[in-house]
Design goal:
The N and C termini lie far apart (64 Å). The strands form three sheets. The chain has a six-stranded parallel sheet with strand order 4-3-5-6-7-13, with helices on both faces. Strands 9-8-10-11-12-14 form a six-stranded mixed sheet, with helices on both faces. The protein has 342 residues and is of the alpha/beta class. The chain folds into three domains: 3-82, Arc Repressor Mutant, subunit A (Orthogonal Bundle); 91-190 and 312-332, 3-Layer(aba) Sandwich (Rossmann fold), CATH 3.40.50.2300; 193-308, Rossmann fold (3-Layer(aba) Sandwich), CATH 3.40.50.2300. It is built from eleven helices and 14 strands. The longest helix has 15 residues, at 19-33.
Length: 342
């Protein structure tokens, strides 16, 4: 029996997608990947029904849909065969993020643009909640050819792992962060935030020499990789800077001779206001850096320096994984764009 049908039978098919459509999707993916070759004979309706534990009507409906799409052909008294033609359907991508942030939008837009017109991408958000994360994935199992997921703030619990393991092989692609126990079994585009933040700051070390203290301004409102704290601390210790980790900027005033690295835009704006109120000049008396870029940071307060994990590159590499159809792990480096604020 063809491995496709054996794998389908062994997989847990508990999504809301009709069984016939799940079988269609499975066959389309394997045809696209070359696991099913032109001219290869498919099991008969009875054989597929027994192998996949499906009714004859369900298999017949799936075969009829594949025949309509032109990817299989039937020969009287001989059966069904892979036709060699491409299905007249778009590759469907499930794209899951915690929230729609500026950085995530940049990644998504780059992914869509590079993937091209033959790919249809639907984006979903889980609001950094484990229950939402699992529910959204389970509700859409079998509906998509590939699942691109940013598991920000998701715990590596048995429930979350069990949910993700329902998406097999190269169909699951992790972005920016991954579940450690699954990263080697799936495709990914990742950034080692701790190492990269230290490296990129070290490459630009000369721009920090006029300051005495570096401050990392954290947030509870948006996602940030906790390894950023480690990388920031390593840079400061290596270069003998005093440093602090601040919990937001709500009750803080910027101080002359300090650099402030903000995770959230609301803290960035608060720091700018504080400097203006004290007549402190950005880039000379006070330094500001923001995590990730946006269209307005280039002109805000004369230009805000940023450190970013290259969202456009992340989106492009993810699209390459989908288009290539191969299991692969890629790493991206961070970059620093220097502007007036530093």
């Amino acid at each position: 029996m063809i491995a496709t049908f054996r794998n389908f039978a062994n997989a847990k098919q508990d999504s809301k997608t009709p069984k016939y459509q799940q079988l269609v999707n499975t066959l389309l993916v394997d045809i696209k990947k070359g696991n099913l070759q032109t001219g290869e004979r498919l099991p008969s309706i009875n054989e597929a029904s027994e192998e996949c534990y499906l009714s004859r009507d369900t298999v017949e409906r799936a075969y009829s849909e594949l025949h309509r799409l032109g990817v299989i052909t039937s020969i009287f008294r001989k059966g069904y065969f892979i036709s060699g033609k491409s299905a007249k359907t778009k590759t469907k991508i499930f794209f899951l993020v915690g929230k729609i942030t500026e950085n995530n939008k940049a990644i998504f837009n780059a992914f869509v643009n590079y993937a091209g017109k033959d790919v249809a991408v639907d984006i979903f958000t889980y609001n950094y909640k484990n229950e939402n994360f699992r529910e959204i994935i389970n509700d859409h199992l079998g509906n998509y050819h590939y699942y691109v997921i940013m598991p920000h703030l998701m715990d590596e619990t048995d429930e979350n792992l069990k949910c993700l393991k329902k998406i097999t092989g190269e169909r699951l692609i992790f972005l920016d962060q991954a579940m450690p126990s699954l990263v080697n079994a799936n495709s990914s585009v990742l950034c080692n935030a701790g190492q990269e933040i230290c490296n990129v700051m070290q490459q630009n070390a000369k721009h920090f020499k006029k300051y005495k203290t570096l401050n990392l301004v954290l947030t509870e409102e948006e996602y940030f990789d906790a390894e950023l704290i480690t990388g920031f601390r390593n840079f400061c210790e290596k270069n003998n800077y005093d440093f602090q980790v601040l919990d937001g900027f709500e009750d803080e005033d910027v101080e002359e001779g300090n650099v402030y690295f903000t995770m959230e835009d609301i803290d960035l704006v608060a720091a700018i206001k504080s400097a203006q109120n004290q007549n402190l000049e950005l880039g000379k008396q006070v330094g500001l850096i923001s995590l990730n870029d946006s269209c307005y940071k280039e002109i805000l307060a004369g230009g805000i320096s940023i450190i970013s994990a290259k969202p456009t590159e992340v989106g492009k590499l993810a699209a390459e994984l989908v288009l290539g159809g191969k299991r692969q792990s890629m790493n991206v480096s961070m970059e620093m764009i220097l502007r007036k604020s530093l």
